[in-house]
């Protein structure tokens, strides 16, 4: 069944699964009492250990070569990954989550522009339309919390869509390359400033348990899947799926805290789901129609390219 799915559908499912695992993150950030540098230190340490062991188990002695095969992504993606993590944690602590999410949701637009300007990645009109609809839906969902919190948090949050877009766009430009191997480098880049700021402190037991749960279970699986998504999608499309975090995060707060979302949140969530599902169905029908008319199956061609060994 998996092999029969269109390439883009695989990318949406992989990235979407990662976003679902990442969605409790904002709730955990808000719910812990430790300083930002302490939070980031433990997050980077635990996440880096797990992702480093996964990369070593997969590639063994070939790991350095797998990192070199990532090309420019081996530099830019770790920097962007660390920047988005620092920006997210700091912004959520400084301002309302709604402010952060509205700004973060600009990532697909930024990724689309970066892909076009830097790598010549042209998006279809359908994709631009879906991006605009999803950004609108995410904005409606977060509108209830807009205007609360520190203006400094808004400024810090501006780094989030830019760094997410850089990571996704540069990773997607390395066609057929596994960029998950450079995630441990991103954790190292994240860890060093936390060390310099004195983040190597033992949190209270309750916060430590939450950090262990996220750092050892949820986050490694989430980031591994999200970093895999750009192998099948453009940077803008991979960033687009990240908007699901707004929808799932709102539902988690509703379930966990009992905070009923405003009516606009339901409208925005429905708009996001309708746009993503509608686009996915159109892609599936379009590909099946072309193959039925005798055109070569682009999925089979791309799969053969991915399996072709490179020097």
Automatic annotation (TrEMBL):
Record-annotated EamA domain positions: 33-141, 153-278
Membrane topology: Multi-pass membrane protein
Keywords: Membrane, Transmembrane, Transmembrane helix
GO cellular component, one term: membrane
Transmembrane portions of the chain: 12-29, 41-61, 73-94, 100-120, 127-144, 150-170, 182-202, 208-226, 238-257, 263-282
Localization in the cell: Membrane
Record's signal peptide: none
InterPro entries linked to this entry: AA-Vitamin_Transporters (IPR050638), EamA_dom (IPR000620), EmrE-like (IPR037185)
Domain of life, source organism: Bacteria
Family to which the UniProt record says this protein belongs: Belongs to the EamA transporter family.
Protein name: EamA domain-containing protein
Species of origin: Halomonas salipaludis
């Amino acid at each position: 069944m998996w092999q029969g799915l269109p390439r883009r559908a695989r990318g949406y499912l992989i990235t979407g699964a990662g976003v679902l695992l990442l969605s409790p993150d904002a709730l955990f950030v808000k719910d812990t009492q430790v300083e930002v540098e302490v939070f980031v230190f433990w997050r980077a340490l635990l996440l880096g250990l797990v992702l480093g062991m996964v990369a070593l188990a997969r590639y063994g002695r070939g790991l350095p070569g797998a990192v070199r095969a990532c090309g420019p992504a081996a530099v830019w993606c770790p920097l962007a990954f660390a920047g988005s993590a620092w920006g997210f944690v700091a912004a959520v602590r400084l301002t309302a989550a709604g402010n952060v999410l509205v700004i973060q949701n600009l990532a697909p637009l930024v990724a689309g522009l970066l892909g076009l300007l830097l790598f010549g990645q042209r998006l279809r009109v359908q994709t631009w339309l879906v991006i605009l609809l999803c950004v609108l839906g995410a904005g409606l969902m977060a509108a209830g919390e807009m205007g609360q919190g520190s203006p400094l948090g808004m400024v810090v949050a501006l780094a989030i869509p830019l760094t997410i877009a850089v990571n996704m766009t540069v990773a997607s430009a390395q066609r057929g390359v596994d960029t998950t191997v450079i995630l441990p480098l991103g954790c190292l880049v994240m860890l060093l400033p936390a060390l310099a700021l004195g983040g190597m402190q033992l949190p209270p037991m309750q916060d430590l348990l939450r950090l262990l749960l996220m750092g050892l279970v949820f986050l490694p699986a989430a980031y591994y899947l999200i970093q895999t998504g750009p192998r099948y999608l453009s940077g803008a499309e991979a960033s687009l799926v990240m908007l699901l975090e707004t929808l799932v995060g709102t539902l988690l707060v509703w379930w966990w805290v009992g905070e009923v979302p405003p009516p606009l949140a339901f409208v925005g969530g429905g708009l996001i789901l309708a746009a993503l599902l509608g686009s996915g169905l159109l892609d599936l029908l379009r590909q099946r129609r072309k193959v039925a008319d005798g055109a070569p199956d682009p999925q089979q061609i791309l799969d053969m390219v991915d399996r072709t060994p490179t020097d």
